[in-house]
Amino acid sequence: MRIDIISVLPELMESPFQASILKRAMQKDLAEVHFHQLRDWSIGKHKQIDDEPYGGGAGMVMMIEPIDKCISELKTQRDYDEIIYLTPDGETLTQRIANTLSIKKNLIFLCGHYKGIDQRVRDLHITKEISIGDYVLTGGELAACVLADSIIRLLPGVLNDEQSALTDSFQDNLLSPPIYTRPSEYKGLKVPDILLSGHSKKIEEWQHDQAVKITLERRPDILD
Fold this sequence. Notes:
By secondary structure, this protein is α/β, with parallel strands linked by helices.
């Protein structure tokens, strides 16, 4: 998989891709992530990428020309499955979306800034708009990192135990059940006897029941 991220502040995203699972994925050549400084396609000697909105109002708007030039150049080099704009008014990121994107080959992420991008960019190039929550960030960079992480960790070979991703919260519209590890008792708190019983079928039933219970309490909206 290849992900191209267009940003005004690409340096803001470098650290997350230099550690842990994301770093491992790139070292194994399972994923490529390339950052593109939007100002490289900017206008004039002042490298302008934003301007005042037509019709008035507070804030600045990212201009169409630099973004169009950047995306158009990238599209001459390969075919992209999705061109994704990270924006608060996009579709809220879910595990289902991450699963779907994880089987794609080439993706572009466009990080918004200021009051957003010229609508014509959305009309010309954007195929999907994604939000990571109902709040506003300074820019789309952190959202791009979240989206990339949610996708890349699902790629075959990235996790040491590939079954791990399949048992994460939300994969089956349930939150995860309680989990425990050694010691079996600590400060009077004991691991449930069922988990120590060795009865795989009963353990699975208990875990499922607990997952349903927790989901009903915390996130009944995600149940089928």
